[in-house]
Structure formats: structure tokens, C-alpha cells
Amino acid sequence: MQETNGTLPRLELKLCAPRGFCAGVDRAIQIVELALLKYGAPVYVRHEIVHNKYVVESLRNKGAVFVEELNEVPDDGQPVIFSAHGVPKSIPAEAQRRNMFFLDATCPLVSKVHKEAILHDRREREVLLIGHAGHPEVIGTMGQLPEGTVHLIETVADAKSYQPHSDRQLAWISQTTLSVDDTSEIVRVLKERFPDIAQPHKDDICYATTNRQEAVKFIASQCDALIVVGAPNSSNSQRLREVAEREGCQKAVLLQRAADINWKDFEGITSLGVTAGASAPEILVEEIIEAFRSHFDVVVETIRTATEDISFNLPRELREGVSTTG
Ligand code: 2E4
Ligand code: SF4
């Protein structure tokens, strides 16, 4: 039984499970940490390893140096790590050309989509990528094939108006962190217009994205407000906020830290849903719950809608014993 506090208003806090770190994020962060242990600082990381400032700052404090492009990395023999979102083929090619030592932290589920793109092209199919323009994962996936080969579909309207560029069979692939519902609507339109379009065996939207959206769907309509812990540039976190809003939650907000809470948003609520994007560490969820404890008499209930037991192997270079004694 939770202790109750007579002076503060009661708040039923429904905590989504699963939430937060997925196997791809866990692996990417481990790659940076193990590289720092094995090769010493600095270790260069191309792009935020995952879209979270707290994660990036913690790694920076341990000696990681974040850059956006390889031309910012000196030729000092230290490793450069590619972020979890994946990179166009031109990036490892450039690293090789410069004789750089690189480690690839691309999530294996993103790499799987890269392979699909390449395979469709080999089978002479015209590739359509469902995703958001400008996102690093989309840039990486499009960059698996020569420019102009992968065609981006962002919306249902794009699917309705798409004009094939060749007489090849079409094939669709997708970004891993999309809205499950929006994507199935886009796919429905594509299939209606192009019945023989080839598609992934299973969805390209990953298990973590799917499970986190399902969990939000399950609780959103029972909550006066819902917080997604995550960064504004985190696609999967943004999608969670949208899902909550679409399910009828009156106030769905994305927050990075407790300091960002606008208490006016939560005045008078009696139930609050909390989840976290795949790149948001649990410590930030705890920080936000603690902040609510100073304004409400909080009773936490964890609502589990799926269990996850997925983990990915580390790159070969980091699998052999890393000395922690320096
Ligand atoms: C790689 C692929 O893609 P998104 O913006 O959601 O990335 P984030 O870093 O927030 O989450 C981890 C991740 C990385 C998700 N999919
Ligand atoms: Fe990989 Fe999915 Fe996590 Fe992205 S959200 S890093 S695709 S497991």
C-alpha cells in the first residue's frame, strides 16, 4: 500500500511497459562505452548516438566527441562510431578511403531495411521508402542505393499521387519508427493502386516502436494527460505523443527533463500516463515522477502490454574482453 498524503491532490500515474530503451539503443550506447574503455578517449561519434541530450552529455563526459560529418574527425587513429540511425553507403566508403577505424552502431533492425532496399534493387524493383524527409535514418536508407533510386513517400497524399519512374515492379520499405496506423493507411493506398507491390515479410516498423505505441494506445483514453519522455528530434518519441493525442488524451506532451514541466498543463488532473521513447533513459522517467510527487499524492501503477527479451550482438571488435582496469 502506498502512503497517502492528506494535503496533496491524488494522482493515478499509469506507467507504460514497455517504455524507454530498446535493444538497438542499448547496443549503440554500449558500443561507445566499450570503445572508450578499449581505445581510450577521444572516440568520435558521427551524429547523436541516439536522439537524447542526456545520453549524449553523459558520453561526452566520458570522452566521446560528437560530430555531424566525417570531415570534422582528425586522422588520429581513434575510432569513429556511426549512430544507431544508420548511414548512407558513402560514409563507410569515405572512412575507408581515409583509412579511418570505424565502428557501426546502426541498429540491426535498420540494417535489415538497408538490405531489403539493396535486394529489391538487385531484383530490379523500384523502391519506395515510407518515412520522414530529412530524418537521419531516411537519409541512411536512401543512401544505400544511388541517388534518385529510392523514392520517398511521406503521406497518404504522396501514396495517392505517386507516379512510377519505370516499368519495374514496385516494392515498399519503411523507416523503423513510424506511426503503425499512418503507415498501414499509406500501405493500403499503395496496395490498392499497385496490387503487385512487393513488401517486407513482416513490417519494417520495429518491435520496440510497435510495442511502445500499443502501450500508449492502451492507457491514453483513461488518462487526463500523458507525458512522453523524449527529445523533439526523436521520431519514435514524437509518434508516441501523437498516438496519445489521437486516442483522445486531452493533453499529450513530450518532455526531456523534469525542469521542462509546465505545471499549468497538469492543474486539476487526476490521472497521468507516462512513457518514454526508445532513446530516453529510465533515470529521466524517475526524475519526472519524483517531480510529480512534490505536487501530487502519486500512486504509480505499471501497465504492461508486452514483454521484450531482444538483445543484439556487439560488433566483433568489441566482443573480445575489454579491460576495465585501464
Ligand atoms: C535508430 C533507429 O529514429 P528516432 O528519431 O526515433 O531515433 P532515437 O534516437 O530517438 O531512437 C533510437 C533509434 C535509433 C530508433 N530507431
Ligand atoms: Fe532499433 Fe527499433 Fe530501437 Fe530503432 S527503435 S534502435 S529500430 S530496436
- Give the N-to-C terminal Cα separation: 46 Å
The CATH superfamily label of the largest domain reads 4-hydroxy-3-methylbut-2-enyl diphosphate reductase, catalytic domain
Structural class: alpha/beta
Tell me roughly what share of residues is in helical segments: 25-40%
How many individual domains? 3
Rg over CA atoms = 21 Å
Strand content: 15-25%
What is the strand tally? 12
Compact description:
The protein is of the alpha/beta class and 326 residues long. It has helices spanning 23-39, 53-61, 90-97, 108-122, 136-142, 156-161, 180-193, 207-220, 235-246, 282-293, 316-319; strands at residues 10-17, 43-46, 64-67, 80-82, 102-104, 125-130, 150-153, 169-174, 225-229, 251-255, 271-276, 297-304.
